[in-house]
């Protein structure tokens, strides 16, 4: 249990229903829709440079997701889970019949923001905190149990709502945003709903003891921390004006 | 070279001397003695709660160092390097003849700040960014080449100066600090100097191509990022007042 250290207030988890209640509590208190940076983003209070910084940093997260999902897939001898999970890699990487994936759609957004693709994909300008948090996610799904690896994707349960807020808010407030640019998010609304249903059902069926359920809870807290930390770092660097040495400087790409 | 992405302005590195010059440039521009949080700490501008948050979070870093060093040691078939490196584990963990190590000396500091040892060692209250950054350091020395693993310790070249500033500044400004409490730092001044000499000599002799020297440079940038990111997170949470959900709340330990 040494690795269970993220939950300051554990609750009884004797049933799958108690687990779901607890997971929804965590979403309601720790999911990054609550973060002040998202409030600024969605209400049009960021300038273009700040939106650039967000899109540039989040590219590292987006482009790491299929790597993370490949690690998750590799943890399962159960063919049915592998089949289910493989769809996620295709969602982000696209397929050989020419259908674009989520990463390509993210680059449409960074294009619209005036960031060169070579610069974005090099990741040289991202915040160190972004890299640490995202890499922690990849390591988590490799080092923890397969149950915890699946559970760390449970943030998808809360994602469709934030995507809808973001699409509406960004379309309304920013002149560099149009429906084509927001296609990443419109597509994710449907994808994330399906993925979330699978994850929630999986953890409710496969976490069979209170300790296993606590592992699921901690995996969700961990993942909320991965998302929240990225926004804290963006806010500190680009809203409060304390960029660490060597990172993206909007003046270079204005 | 895909993993070399941290240096926005690479320089020619054709000789060991060019390497040393570049390493000292990085120290002069990226080492965390330059971070505003350290300026506040050393000049007495933090309150006790903020010093508590610093000591609590840095405990996670301190207590991870012997684990990091054990991973480094495990990378070497060269007996001489293992013998040299083993001393570092003893410096932090102490020895069986009853000599305390750096972790124990760190807990003397958290004791003096009124933080219960069980709480400190549980790490439940630390910032997620602290955990991500420190864990990234452990993963780095496991996943990169042995040369890069050694090079990531090169921040010790710049450490004695910051320890001296800290000892003088904290003794002068904080009434909860006395020489016994600062013993961690007084001891580290001599340890770090010896360790730094070994590392600098090692990378100058063992990085034999420009690419290998660039790997050394990036390892030092990486490690500077590990240290800087921890202070950015402390400043954002406890100076600017944006603590993420679930972390140390000074009101609980006033």
UniProtKB/TrEMBL annotation, chains A, B:
**Which InterPro entries is this protein grouped with?**
Haem_Oase-like_multi-hlx, PqqC, PqqC-like, Thiaminase-2/PQQC
Q: Which UniProt keywords apply?
A: Oxidoreductase, PQQ biosynthesis
The UniProt catalytic activity note for this protein reads: 6-(2-amino-2-carboxyethyl)-7,8-dioxo-1,2,3,4,7,8-hexahydroquinoline-2,4-dicarboxylate + 3 O2 = pyrroloquinoline quinone + 2 H2O2 + 2 H2O + H(+)
**Molecular function GO terms recorded:** pyrroloquinoline-quinone synthase activity
The protein's matches in SUPFAM superfamilies, at most eight in alphabetical order, are given as: Heme oxygenase-like
Single GO biological process annotation from the record: pyrroloquinoline quinone biosynthetic process
State the signal peptide span: none
Task: Name the coiled-coil region(s).
Answer: none
This protein's record includes keyword Acetylation = no
- One Pfam match: TENA_THI-4
Query: What Enzyme Commission number(s) does the record list for this chain?
Result: 1.3.3.11
Residue ranges annotated for the Thiaminase-2/PQQC domain, each copy included: 22-232
The record's comment on protein family reads:
Belongs to the PqqC family.
Q: Please give the HAMAP family that the UniProt record associates with this protein.
A: PQQ_syn_PqqC
Q: What is this protein called?
A: Pyrroloquinoline-quinone synthase
Name its species.
Ketogulonicigenium robustum
């Amino acid at each position: 249990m040494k690795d269970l250290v993220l939950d300051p207030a554990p609750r009884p988890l004797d049933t799958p229903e108690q687990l779901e209640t607890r997971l929804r509590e965590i979403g309601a208190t720790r999911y990054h829709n609550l973060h002040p940076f998202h409030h600024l983003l969605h209400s049009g209070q960021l300038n273009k440079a700040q939106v650039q910084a967000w899109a540039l940093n989040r590219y590292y997260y987006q482009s790491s997701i299929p790597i993370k999902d490949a690690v998750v897939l590799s943890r399962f001898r159960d063919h049915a889970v592998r089949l289910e999970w493989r769809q996620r890699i295709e969602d982000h990487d696209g397929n050989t019949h020419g259908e674009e994936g989520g990463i390509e759609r993210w680059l449409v957004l960074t294009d619209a923001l005036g960031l060169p693709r070579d610069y974005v994909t090099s990741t040289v300008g991202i915040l160190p905190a972004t890299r640490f948090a995202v890499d922690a996610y990849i390591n988590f799904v490799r080092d923890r149990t397969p149950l915890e690896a699946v559970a760390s994707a449970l943030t998808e349960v809360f994602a469709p709502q934030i995507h809808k807020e973001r699409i509406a808010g960004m379309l309304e407030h920013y002149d560099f945003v149009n429906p084509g640019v927001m296609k990443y998010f419109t597509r994710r609304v449907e994808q994330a709903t399906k993925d979330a249903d699978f994850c929630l059902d999986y953890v409710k069926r496969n976490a069979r003891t209170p300790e296993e359920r606590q592992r699921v809870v901690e995996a969700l807290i961990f993942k909320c921390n991965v998302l929240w930390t990225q926004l804290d770092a963006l806010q500190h660097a680009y809203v409060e004006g304390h960029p660490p040495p060597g990172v993206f400087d909007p003046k270079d790409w204005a």
